[in-house]
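Example record used in the benchmark description.
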Amino acid sequence: MAWTGLVLLLLLFIFTVLLLFKMGCFQSNSSQNLPPGPRTIPILGNLHIMDWKRPYKTMLKLSKEYGPVFRLQMGCQKMVVLTGYETVKEALVNQAEAFAERPIIPIYKDYSKGFGIVFTNGENWRQMRQFSISALRDYGMGKRIVEDKISEECSVLIKICETYEGKPFDPATILKAATVNIIVYFLLGKRFEYEDATLLRLLELIEEIIHLFGTPAVLVYNVFPKLGFFLDARKKIINNRKEFHEFIQATFLENLKEFDENTQMTFIDTFLVRQKKENKKSTDSYFHNNNLIGLVENLFIAGMDTTSNTLYWTLLLMMKYPEVQRKVQEEIAKEIGVRQPRTEDRVKMPYTNAVIHEIQRFADIIPTNLPHATTKDIIFKSFFIPKGMYILPLLTSVLHDESQWEKPHEFYPEHFLDSEGKFVKRDAFMPFSAGQRVCIGLTLAKMELFLFFTNLLQRFTFQPPSGTSRDDLDLTPVLGLSTPPLPYKTCAVLS
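Model output (structure tokens):
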């Protein structure tokens, strides 16, 4: 019996070593001028030195030792990390084509199945991205019709806040509901009531998916995908995806049985018209239902998560810095008065505009950025980077670059103001990433942030609950792919 056990262990060891060789864990690139990096150990690579909850913190420390371009190995996954504004800009903007791909990451591959925009590559990505940008513009992204929809949603949000009568409440859910209604308008031409059970379940699913994407358990799965069978986080993500897709299928697509291509009203209508047209030309069209579901899911999540989390940071920071809140309200009173804010007001409100930009910089919603991959062998900053290399352009290193910001680790709206109090653009402001993978909803997000922010501060002053001082307010971000603040309560007091 003992000999049988030893033989099995030996066979398992041999199988593991062969598998690791196949995965490239023991391949040497010493003959190539690869970026420098910390010494690796067998199987783990550099996992033993990482902060598993917030890997970007370890990466920031390593950049001080190895420079703005350095190599890491997570298990058998080799990657190159880019840090600092100049380096990230050189890659994503100046050499955009070379850094335009997405790497194959187990959890993203499981989740997207190669459909949609966010985690896809090649011709599928190009066609879906071009179509989405065009369709969103056709339905008013950045135009007056969408501004009116946002203003209507602001009015609903204000009425909900008024029902709390200045008593403490957690604004997270209503902010998510408000922002998701804007993207639902594009997708379906309707909105949800905030208490709608379906909407609340969808928000719960999305929040859990995004949180799990950034957890140590998913990091383990991405490094050692064979362990996926044992990891509850991976199972939960896939189950949530299934439920989310069932919702899209039932609520969005089933409602299109009465679809009339002569009266296109929504993003989905436009996709179906294009699908019909493309299918007449070829059976290999990218305009199929799997891509439609992927697009709807991508837009639904992207349209809600980053904007709502930025607004969630906004109210917390206004409580933390009441003098900033007061100055914004003074500018609103001076430039807008009691009428409802409009997007064109932004140009005459430099302080408010600066505060919104600083909130985005300070909040640092996606600190690691989504990963990129190289489309070809390149020489970058004198280092050789092979085709297909996993690239991590660290956004947090740009938004907190000490060479670009006077007070990079403080909340300081003056970052975006000149000596005369006029608004100034900063090249290192990259909360939406940059280059060919920049967020397609950037224009919409900017409009939403300005209108929601000014509408709320025109009507309310946000204060901590009784007995809570501004020093008690915690600015620690939550663990996840995106990083909202820890849950908190606020009091919306009528101004």
